[in-house]
Amino acid sequence: MALEVNIHKTIGSFTLDVDFTCEDKYIGFMGASGSGKSMTLKCIAGIVAPDSGRIALNHRVLYDSAEKINLLPQKRKIGYLFQNYALFPNMTVIQNIGITKPDKELINDLIRKFRLDGLENRYPSQLSGGQQQRVALARILAYEPDMILLDEPFSAIDAYLREQLRDEMRETLSEYQGNVMIVSHNPEEIESYANKMAVIDQGRVLQSGTVDEVFHNPCDLQTARIVGGKKPYIAERLNADNEHLLG
Fold first, then answer.
1. Helix H segments across the chain?
2. Is 143 strand, coil or helix?
3. Each residue of 28-68: pLDDT tens digit?
4. Rounded to the nearest 5°, which phi and psi values hold at 128?
5. 3-class state of residue 179 by DSSP
């Protein structure tokens, strides 16, 4: 399974110039707010069109400016879990899950798998944050996508519930056969989900590789700051000489 992203996009004074390839099921994409993380996801999903470049998933071209290829979002087979989950407020749990594929057997199976029994006829406003997240993820899996994009999936969850929900989502996604890309500014979330990762800052990828490589051997001072100055081994790097970091 491989994701190839080489795109350029200018919006106002901000320029996104991202180039990375990852051949792994679980991909982490880390950066501070405003670094271009969500914009990259939207380009992969087809919500936003790059100005130029190429995007391919498992050798299937989703976007190629030179070849004039730009598949519609519904043709890309990509599930996108937004930060606010984007559930339809006027639809019940069962209606939200079945919106992309009204298969009663599949919907009932997902309701059981996500422990939503008894909540089928509730509306999003009647659900907790964790329940809304499970409905949103069930809706994505009903679509049977080739890839799932998780955009800061725990940002709307109370801190004391995050660890529990991280464990629940990781267990659920362990059965999923496609690619998973998680975007976050939180080192613990990246470590929990990803095997390979890329670090982005001001619209450009600073470093990519395995999570262990990037976290233990940041290529420069800015990468070290982004991946977590509070971690003991990163803090040592932050206090080290720039020449040592770049070596």
1. 37-45, 93-97, 104-113, 129-142, 159-173, 187-193, 211-216, 221-228, 232-239, 242-246
2. coil
3. 999 988 999 999 999 999 999 999 999 999 999 999 999 99
4. -75, 170
5. strand
Tell me how far apart the alpha carbons of residues 191 and 184 are, in angstroms, rounded to a whole number. Answer: 10
**pTM (two decimals):** 0.86
Angstrom distance (rounded) from CA 96 to CA 88: 7
Question: Exposed, middle or buried by CB within 10 Å (0-12, 13-18, 19+), for 241?
Answer: exposed
Separation CA 33–CA 216 (nearest Å) = 22
Q: How far apart are CA 73 and CA 89, in angstroms?
A: 22
- Distance of alpha carbon 134 from the chain centroid: 16
Alpha-carbon torsion angle 57, 58, 59, 64, nearest 10: 0
Please list the residues that pair with 56 across neighbouring strands.
Answer: 4, 61
The count of other CB atoms within 10 Å of the CB of residue 159 is 7
